[in-house]
Amino acid sequence: MHIDFHILRIILVSFLVVVLLGPIVIPFLKKLKVGQSIREEGPKSHIATKSGTPTMGGIIIVLGIFIATLTSGNYTKEVGACLFAIIGFGLVGFWDDYIKVVLKRNLGFTALQKIIVQLVFALLLSFYGAKYSIDGTKLVIPFTSIYIDLGIFYIPFTTFVILGIVNGVNLTDGLDGLNSGVTLIVMAAFALIANSFSKLNSEYYGVVVVSSAVSGACLGFLRYNAHPAKIFMGDTGSLALGGAVAAVSVVTSLTLVVPIIGGVYLAEVLSDIIQVSHYKRTKKRIFKMAPLHHHFEMCGWKETKIVAVFWFATVILAFIGIYSI
Q: How does pLDDT run along the chain (325 residues), one tens digit per residue?
């Protein structure tokens, strides 16, 4: 009961921090004219409905996570690694947002600049996983009780997966409440898995703390980000959340489970890769627009319907992922 109450308190703190900061930060961002710029190649409906909505709201998500985690009293290396990834990738997103909304360069970082900086953080997290994570270079194989030891291949493999996760979460941020809701469910699933692991090894409890804080922050952010959104998280939030998902998967050796629980992220990434590569070869598109949520928009689905379907799919995938361990 003590552990359950502690988790609920962490969720409540992160939730309240975000909810209380919203009415302060949203007017401040409006005053600074930190409004979202809509890409010309994006859905035309977004230009009228979303252009000018304050972005960089991920700042309050990161603050909610940070405050809830620090006030939890859990200061383990696992917590430190997760916070490092959240803040590190969040700073990359913050700078990208700053370039886009303050310097008015709509594309932010160049693709090369962005991947290089992300690669540095991904490598650092991979090195941490290899040397300090609970299972070292071993990974859990879903639906089995088997661990596979990647040895020298652990760092390149994990770095690749981290970059995939972070950018998958980033791509999922395109509709009101989509990324907030999906990541809330994903992190709640990781919290449940890590909590069951912690009964055998207390080192996993740090992951429970961070995952719970992220879930609470996402829930609080939905107060302002659900349709019609009053604020967007921007790359500040989406990259920070990507760092959170990546970090907890590395610390728990569950990177092979992320494609199950985070199946929506995987679908978003694959749809984008397939679309770009196919168009370069044939000058034809497979999807009406990528990533995947925009395809359904172009098919005539309402934004709220797409979000609800993706949330529901994530709930199902989360149960499958939990069952696979």
A: 445 788 999 999 999 999 999 999 999 988 887 765 555 555 555 544 566 789 899 999 999 999 999 999 888 999 999 999 999 999 999 998 888 887 766 655 777 888 999 999 999 999 999 999 989 999 999 999 899 999 999 999 999 999 999 999 999 998 999 999 999 999 999 999 999 998 888 889 999 999 999 999 999 999 999 999 999 999 999 999 999 999 999 999 999 999 999 999 999 999 999 999 988 899 889 999 989 999 999 999 999 999 999 999 999 999 999 999 8
Residues of the domain holding 127: 2-254
List, in sequence order, every residue forming a beta bridge with 147; answer none if it has no partner. 140
Of the candidates 6, 7, 14, the residue with the CA atom closest to the CA atom of residue 222: 14
Cα–Cα distance, 263 to 266 (Å, whole number): 5
- End-to-end CA gap in the chain: 24
The answer to whether the bond into 142 is cis (omega within 30° of 0) is no
Answer whether residue 194 is part of any domain.
Answer: yes
In a domain, 163, yes or no: yes
Q: How many domains does the chain have?
A: 1
CA distances 203 to 14, 194, 243, Å, are 22, 9, 20
> Across-strand partners of 139?
148
Structural tokens at position 239: 């990259």
Give a yes or no: residue 182 inside a domain: yes
Domain annotation covers residue 208: yes
Q: For the whole model, what pTM was predicted?
A: 0.93
In the chain, the amino acid numbered 47 is I
